[in-house]
Design brief:
- The chain is α/β, with parallel strands linked by helices and 310 residues long.
- The chain has eleven helices and eight strands.
- Helices cover 54% and strands 11% of the residues.
Length: 310
């Protein structure tokens, strides 16, 4: 009797194990079916993933190398990401001097030498970082031989720049998947219309603001400020926490311009920003330079900046 019960338990266990294995296999097949036939596109940043998906729709699968919450200045690639990258037909790099790409691009290409590398910055006019705040950084980059020494890498925070980036991505997708050329070009044209509307909307919204200066911890918004005739005041110095003398000057400048908000990015510490906000009887407000939905995010940024400068 005991032997019979034992055999019965073993049989039930085997059935459960086989059922679990079958379920895993079915799920795996469903996932493969879901991505079958799609063009795998790797990108450096999350906003680029949004651009690729806007153009590629259901024809693409996007791999993001710098994941949500990570900083493109410090992030290191994982082995799993390298495996994902090996399936890519195309890599859309930012192309401006983003530290992640300066450190990793050669290694990423070595993993998949057959993928097309698209430079999203091709045709974008790169602008200088603030000379006073970044003088030492410029000298260090010059000594290291970086091609774009002292230039602002944050090109994706400008509607005008993004129009160029999106066209470069579309051209790349057409090159690696010419069978869907008309699909990509139609989606690209539709997205371009939305960008034109967004640019007009942001320009109108910010045109009447009297106080045109804003403080941000990590100076990511230089191109945004340029586009709408604003002045960005950065807290960070050469990518590091500011020294005491600079904080004192910054507080004086904030009081001079009646600035009551210090903007921070979720990828960075807000400690120094909170100290400055306390000294100017202001507050810290989060704006994200790396949100995936570019259009919605730019509206959020415009609203926050406009409110802070009124």
């Amino acid at each position: 009797m005991k032997k019979y019960k034992t055999n019965k338990i073993i049989s039930v266990t085997l059935v459960l194990l086989l059922a679990s294995a079958l379920l895993i296999a079915v799920v795996g097949c469903d996932q493969e079916t879901e991505t079958a036939g799609k063009t795998v596109v790797a990108v450096t940043l999350l906003p680029q993933a949004g651009f690729v998906e806007a153009i590629g729709g259901d024809k693409v699968e996007v791999v993001v190398m710098v994941p949500p919450g990570a900083s493109p200045h410090t992030y290191e690639v994982t082995p799993d990401q390298m495996t994902q990258l090996s399936r890519a037909k195309m890599y859309a790099k930012v192309g401006s001097p983003v530290e992640f790409e300066l450190a990793w691009m050669d290694k990423l290409i070595a993993v998949n030498k057959t993928m097309l590398v698209v430079d999203c910055s091709q045709g974008v006019a790169l602008m200088e970082m603030d000379e006073e705040e970044h003088e030492d950084e410029h000298e260090a980059e010059a000594e290291s031989g970086h091609e774009h020494e002292g230039l602002d890498p944050h090109i994706w925070l400008s509607v005008k720049n993004v129009k160029i980036m999106v066209q470069n991505i579309c051209d790349g997708l057409v090159q690696v998947d010419s069978a869907n050329k008309s699909y990509y070009e139609k989606n690209c044209a539709d997205y371009m219309e939305k960008l034109v509307e967004l640019d007009t909307e942001l320009a109108a919204g910010l045109s009447g603001v009297a106080n045109r200066s804003f403080i941000v911890f990590h100076p990511s918004f230089g191109y945004f400020a340029r586009d709408y005739n604003l002045t960005q005041i950065g807290v960070e110095q050469e990518g590091k926490e500011p020294d005491a003398d600079y904080i004192i000057r910054l507080i004086e400048e904030a009081k001079e311009h009646d600035i009551k908000v210090v903007f921070v990015s979720p990828q960075y510490s807000s400690k120094s920003a909170e100290s400055i906000a306390n000294e100017i009887s202001g507050k810290v407000v989060i704006i994200d330079p790396l949100a995936k939905d570019f259009i919605a995010n730019m509206r959020t940024i415009e609203s926050a900046v406009k409110k802070a400068m009124q």
